[in-house]
């Protein structure tokens, strides 16, 4: 006997899969400063999300809270349906300036650190671990740099080392805090290529960004954040003049030509000129 599976029953099965992240009424404070206020968002497994907002909007704070590095004041985060984050499943790539690049370790050592959670601190890495390190370096175009000290790399290469570490970790959730700051276009492209290759493995990606054009080109949805969540939608829907003014406030000058071209000069942000062109 054959059993027909209707599209409706397939949908029911799909809807039982827990989202990668379920953030409910999240508020994070540093003493009296409320860095994030009542943020709620549900992110599906495999989605790639750009977090957009001016300096001080709470982008890093949100990423750190999701990484389990920042205590939550009120609200809740569920990771793959669990109320506890499982560290092995999350890779967090901090802002470049937060890393001590003089630390005397090689590129492959840094990438191998991504395996520590899986192999344990005091066990030797296996051939499989080393293979994963090599593959991760190949994926970000750095195989030839495996034995270099990390301080001897360019900014773009250093950022890619941390992406390779996340790949070697085999994380299901990748959090990157402004990975493109200070990188030239080829290095940025290399990072986007590596991120794109994670789609086939359904790795969920959240990246803090300043460039609206890149957000709309490379990400499924964008979060517009300024302490509270202004919008969370595909870029085409989220990047309305009203939402952008709510996000960037008085620092924003909008010019538009037709419906789809926005030019934003934002004196508060690292990038002095941000553009969004369809
Ligand atoms: N460790 C801290 N102690 C006290 N206040 C902090 C701390 N970290 C961040 N803040 C404050 O929290 C708010 C949000 O900061 P956060 O770094 O999350 O913003 P951001 O959007 O990532 O900014 P940027 O684009 O400049 O990195 C800011 O007002 C900031 O000054």
Automatic annotation (TrEMBL):
It comes from the Bacteria. Residues 21-252 form the ABC transporter domain. Signal peptide: none annotated. SMART domains: AAA. Keywords: ATP-binding, Nucleotide-binding, Transport. PROSITE patterns: ABC_TRANSPORTER_1, ABC_TRANSPORTER_2. GO terms for molecular function: ATP binding; ATP hydrolysis activity. Belongs to the ABC transporter superfamily. This is ABC transporter related. It comes from Chloroflexus aggregans (strain MD-66 / DSM 9485).
